[in-house]
Amino acid sequence: MRLGIDLGGTKTEILVLGNRGEELLRRRVPTPNNDYNSIVRTIRDLVTDAEAKLESCGSVGVAIPGAISRKTGLVKNANSTRLIGHPLDKDLGVALNREVRIENDANCFALSEAADGAGAGYDIIFGVIAGTGVGGGICVNGRVLSGAHGIAGEWGHNPLPAPRGPQEIDNPPRCYCGRYGCVESWCSGPALVRQYESCTGRTLSVPEIVEAARQGDAAAVAEMTNFYDRLARSLASVVSVLDPDVIVMGGGLSNIEELYIELPPLVERYAFTPEGPTNIVQNKHGDSSGVRGAAWLWRDEEVQRGLPNNVVPLAGATSR
């Protein structure tokens, strides 16, 4: 069996999958907010409790909002700052007495959708997380591509392509990363709210702006049109480099039905000579994709090695 952990800023979730991908157990607990060691103990306890209940041992994968540096072996770029500078995979390995695989949560999202989600059966999958922030992950032939610096797929911190008009050229918003005009600062949920408020003086949530546009509100229609165009320009730059078979949308913004009508022809227009629209689809597993992808991290290694799609149990343990 496979155990996946999704380590978030406020909650930590465990999901246990059987060898056919069936869900065996799921549990969620608050993420400790006091210190790093408490996080390690929480994950250890979730794993050991789950294995005791199921009377079986398995592989462990963890999704985190950051990455493990290949250079230092320490966590970097994590929104949960308590993790930064620690060898989380090594510490969990000691705590659980086995190797633990850790990946960025967007990469786990992409892997989940590639394994048995909306990207199943495709060779090259670009998984998009678009919500409070903008991120992404890449899977090729069932394998996560992390990159030399662990930042592959992080298109949200590229500059908005082909800026136009005074707003995009002369007054780009500042991103939390310290740069100006990042894709995330234009195409995230908070960015859409900010743009609408700047235009109208009214503060609406993203679903309210979307509904206002559906009802014909001129300002909402204009801002949604700008949003689709900016998102399409940004995705087109990914298509021109990666040329994915499918783009799987995740995060809160993936629930906007119009995305799947508006984006494909716009991306085709802006990308470099595609021979038809890129497939852009909504995710299958929703909020569960991160924890599911963490569980599938060992499948990634099996696909890479050409091994059967199962888990070799620990010595003395039973397989499930």
Q: How many beta-strand runs?
A: 12
The CATH class of the largest domain: Alpha Beta
Round the mean pLDDT to the nearest integer and report it.
90
Order of helices and strands: EEEHEEEHEHEEEHHHHHEHEHH
Number of domains: 2
Note the gap between the termini.
5 Å
What structural category do the secondary elements indicate? alpha/beta
Note down, in words, how this protein is organized.
With 320 residues, this protein is of the alpha/beta class. It folds into two domains: 2-109 and 287-305, ATPase, nucleotide binding domain (Nucleotidyltransferase, domain 5, 2-Layer Sandwich); 121-283, 2-Layer Sandwich (Nucleotidyltransferase, domain 5). Helix content is 39%, strand content 19%. The chain has helices at residues 36-54, 88-96, 105-116, 165-170, 183-187, 189-200, 206-214, 218-242, 259-270, 289-295, 297-305, and strands at 2-7, 11-17, 23-30, 59-64, 67-68, 75-76, 100-104, 124-130, 134-140, 143-144, 246-250, 279-282. The strands form three sheets. Strands 3-2-1-4-7 form a five-stranded mixed β-sheet. A hairpin with a 6-residue loop joins strand 5 and strand 6. Helix 3 (105-116) packs across helix 10. 43% of the residues are buried.
Which key terms come to mind for this protein?
320 residues, 2 domains, five-stranded mixed beta sheet, disordered C terminus, Nucleotidyltransferase, domain 5, 12 strands, 39% helix, alpha/beta
